[in-house]
Each structure stands twice: as C-alpha cells, then as structure tokens.
Design brief:
Elements lengths: L8 H4 L2 H15 L1 H4 L3 H30 L3 E2 L5 E2 L4
Antiparallel strand pairs: 1-2
Helix pairs in contact: 2-4
Length: 83
C-alpha cells in the first residue's frame, strides 16, 4: 500500500496537527529562517507551537466524541455519558 494513501482512522483526527508541524519544520528548514535571531525563532515556535497544541487537543476531543466517550452538542458543549 502506498503510504500517501494510508490514513488510518486513529490518526486522521490529528491530521491538522501533523500539517501544522510539517509546515513549521518546512519554515525552519528554509533559507529565509537560517539568519533569523534566536529570539525570533523562539517566538515563532511558541506562537505556532501553541496552534499545534490546540490542533492536538481538538483531535483528541474529536476522537473521544467519535468513540462515544464524550458527547459534543451542536452548541459545542461537552458532556460525559451517564454511568
């Protein structure tokens, strides 16, 4: 199977985080970033890294919602199933 077409369900929830991380790595590897100041790089990683964390957490919530462990209402409210 061609890895480009392999997207198992347990990883698809985190595709936004993967894309964001790959984009960050691409920026940091580019010639434009090689001459930047240390503080500029730290600021970039902090800002963009926070977005990666947000994407990871959203993927986690989406995975939990799909598995039925939590319910997300149309208004965006989270609830746990009754035990």
């Amino acid at each position: 199977m061609n890895p480009a077409y392999w997207n198992p369900p347990e990883f698809s929830f985190f595709s936004d985080a993967t894309k964001q991380t790959d984009q960050m790595i691409g920026h940091l590897q580019s010639d434009n970033w090689r001459d930047n100041e240390h503080g500029d790089i730290e600021q970039y990683i902090q800002n963009e890294g926070f977005d990666v964390l947000r994407c990871l957490f959203q993927g986690y919530l989406d995975l939990k919602a799909k598995s039925g462990l939590i319910h997300v209402s149309p208004e965006g409210n989270l609830s746990l199933p009754q035990l």
